[in-house]
Amino acid sequence: MRFFVFFVLSTFSVCETSPSRSVFTNHWAVRITGGPEEADKLASKYGFTNLGQIGGLEDHYHFHHSRVVRRSTFATRGTHSFIHMDPKVDWIQQQIVKSRVKRYARSDPNFIYFNDPKWSNMWYIHCSDKNSRCRSEMNILAAWQRGYTGRNVVVTILDDGIERNHPDLAQNYDQLASYDVNGNDHDPTPRYDSSNENKHGTRCAGEVAAVANNSHCIVGIAYNARIGGIRMLDGDVTDVVEAKSLGIRPDYIDIYSASWGPDDDGKTVDGPGPLAKQAFEVGIKKGRKGLGSIFVWASGNGGRQGDHCSCDGYTNSIYTISVSSSTENGNKPWYLEVCSSTLATTYSSGEFYDRKIVTTDLRQRCTDGHTGTSVSAPMVAGVIALALEANPLITWRDVQHLLVKTSRPVHLKANDWKTNAAGHKVSHLYGFGLVDAEAMVLEAKKWRSVPPQHICTKISDRRTRYIRPDQKLNASMSSTGCSEQPEQQVVFLEHVVVRVLIVHPRRGDLEISLISPSGTRSQLLAKRLFDNSNEGFRNWEFMTVHCWGERAEGTWTLEISDSPSQLRNPEVLGKLKEWTLILYGTVEHPYQSQGSQHSRSRMLEIPSIKGPEPSPGTPQHEDEEEEEFKMLFCITAAVLFLSHPSNVLSFFLCFSSLLLSFHRTCVSHCPLGYFENIEARRCRRCHRGCETCVGHGLNECRSCRRGLYFYTEENSCVEACPTSYFKPHCILFSLSLYLSCCSLAGMTCVPECANGTFFNLEEMKCSPCHISCSTCTGPFTFTSALFCLFCYVIFSCLMSFSTNGIFPVSSIDSSIYCVPYNTL
Ligand SMILES: *[C@@H]1O[C@H](CO)[C@@H](O)[C@H](O)[C@H]1NC(C)=O
Ligand SMILES: *[C@@H]1O[C@H](CO)[C@@H](O)[C@H](O)[C@H]1NC(C)=O
Ligand SMILES: *[C@@H]1O[C@H](CO)[C@@H](O)[C@H](O)[C@H]1NC(C)=O
Ligand SMILES: [Ca+2]
Ligand SMILES: [Ca+2]
Ligand SMILES: [Ca+2]
């Protein structure tokens, strides 16, 4: 069967115009027994032309229907479709221009080939492999193809040094962007020891600016940028060391990338001291000749310890761009720290079977084992370097606006994605989502600086409020956005900071949320299992970016809850003594200053049936047919409504969607079912069944509407997964799939086994759990290596598995081992 499908495909794909689009053709393959005469008869009965037998395949005919739309994105309906039900037809299939063609499209003629040996392993930049593990949504290649490679931009890595004579760094190494704060000299070369402890800075530097096409190691994201290193982590880090490091040559260095911070132990609350704080402020005010230094920060690796990045004053600062990580499959990595100050995300490592990052390594080597959020800060620094090349005049705040505007959720999985009142999708795991280098350079190119930053501060009264374990404490404050003081007035929000003075017997028991006037809820603090401190929060500042673009005016509510752990006397109550709301933002709409010739470009239009906008290669028919279908559906809904008034909802929905399609509307984000065509500034329809997509072909889906399953191999949405493919992503069954599913709690991808049993991969059947588990996902053994692996998996699947069980520990290099809980 396969053979003739390809035969038909190759016959028709060559004469079609756009090989990258996957659509239904007006050709069918039919199996009819009874000879050519019978086939002819059936063809004419339903209005087809029989083009004869398909190659050497007996009883298989090629039918053509001239009155059916030649290229359509969905299976067409009409009297011809009744042939499907004719008993004389054994089998019939409308031909689709599908993945065969698509895969050729992947080796697109513009594809850049570099001779660097690890180029093919740089999965987060390009798709060189033909399998479905292709992940290129950071669009770095596309930014390069537009000519941006970081030229004339200077980046430095604040870390444990940089191997300046590394063959993949030497050419871009910049002495003037470097300093050794630990050694107090101008040479940031790391200190070598047998464990290669000081490899971190060199690894980060390569990600940003490793030299391209030099037959060595990798290609940096901004491979023509200048790269320096500030050696400051290899020694006692003090406030002075930090302040010095953050303030080195602010007029020369554009971007500072830092992948370090306070201990990620889940119990520390710490941030910049008074000098480092001043260094940040001086940097954003005076750096880059007044445009502001750009500080990029890793959000932290304390996920396993239940750390929350809001307790890290560096990532939490409005002056740093805090960056999170996601695995290649869009899963939450074990080290990820959740908090509301995270702005954007890049790919990084995940479980041991997920791919890691390749980069330059100490001793002139190359590694494919770079991991954690340390990966993500330099990646974003590289992407910002591309944007600064596109427009060197953007300010430190413009850079943050650009990231808010262009980062996307794509396939990053989190259960807290929400759309704020300004239309931005945001999550506590990933901020505004995966960075998009191409969108960054395109936006940067035409960007006009946002209006000046205003700061509106309001302090609560000094009334002590008790935090009772059984009841949430709600403290509200109404704000005018300082409308009475023009110098401070904020109408449109950027960052929001809440400073709290809380006295509490056990800090780790607290949870704090902030609800904006528009109803957006930011979690400022989550419970931290290991935080036993009785110090409370003494004027600690929590920050959220989740209200970005919303209006400042209205009632703000701080919600505090306390769930006493067994380690404390629940009779002792915590107290909120004072809180301060600090709103940052602008009076004018930040994007109105973009000027009239630019403002239109900020909007994407939803197409209408009146829209005279057939794009090249897109048949007009499909929209018309769909509208016709919609109209018919609406009429049906109207009739139903008239006879049964309880059907009012579908009637209403239908008409509102019809109205939407008749009127062009400007929106800041395309609705579900549409994708942004940036060049045409339009929202275009995804293929039917797709909820999100990157194009409107059948194989360009990224997620599916309810009731359909995402078929990963083909990027399409199907009603049922093919055999041996499992829901919800129709992935071929494999060990790594099985393990990765476990971290997607609640998703079924292995055969379901009864409670107390698990799916045994060796025996391919359900087997009983170890006696200690009520539920499990794997066997339980203390001897084999599998034990660790499954201990780990058990943990990711069953969050409650803790006190009397095994607790998994994992180092940053993903060597996984398990220890009994008590010994921790
Ligand atoms: C890299 O160098 C090779 C020659 O070694 C050349 O064929 C190729 O086009 C270069 N790639 C780029 C992107 O410049
Ligand atoms: C605070 O608000 C929540 C709902 O957001 C409510 O459940 C709770 O009872 C309120 N607490 C008090 C003390 O009113
Ligand atoms: C297993 O137990 C859970 C609750 O403990 C229940 O919801 C579920 O239906 C049970 N599954 C089976 C297959 O018995
Ligand atoms: Ca030195
Ligand atoms: Ca290289
Ligand atoms: Ca942390």
UniProtKB/TrEMBL annotation:
UniProt-annotated catalytic positions: 159 (charge relay system), 200 (charge relay system), 374 (charge relay system)
Organism encoding this protein: Pygocentrus nattereri (Red-bellied piranha)
Residue ranges crossing the lipid bilayer per the database entry: 780-801
UniProt protein name: P/Homo B domain-containing protein
Domain P/Homo B: 449-589
N-terminal signal peptide: 1-17
Taxonomy, superkingdom: Eukaryota
Gene3D superfamilies in alphabetical order: Galactose-binding domain-like, Hormone Receptor, Insulin-like Growth Factor Receptor 1, Chain A, domain 2, Peptidase S8, pro-domain, Peptidase S8/S53 domain
GO molecular function: serine-type endopeptidase activity
Gene assigned in the entry: PCSK6
Biological process according to GO: peptide hormone processing
GO cellular component, one term: membrane
Keyword annotations from UniProtKB, A to Z: Cleavage on pair of basic residues, Glycoprotein, Hydrolase, Membrane, Protease, Repeat, Serine protease, Signal, Transmembrane, Transmembrane helix, Zymogen
Region (Disordered): 178-200
Biased composition (Basic and acidic residues): 183-200
Upper lineage: Eukaryota, Metazoa, Chordata, Craniata, Vertebrata
Similarity section: Belongs to the peptidase S8 family.
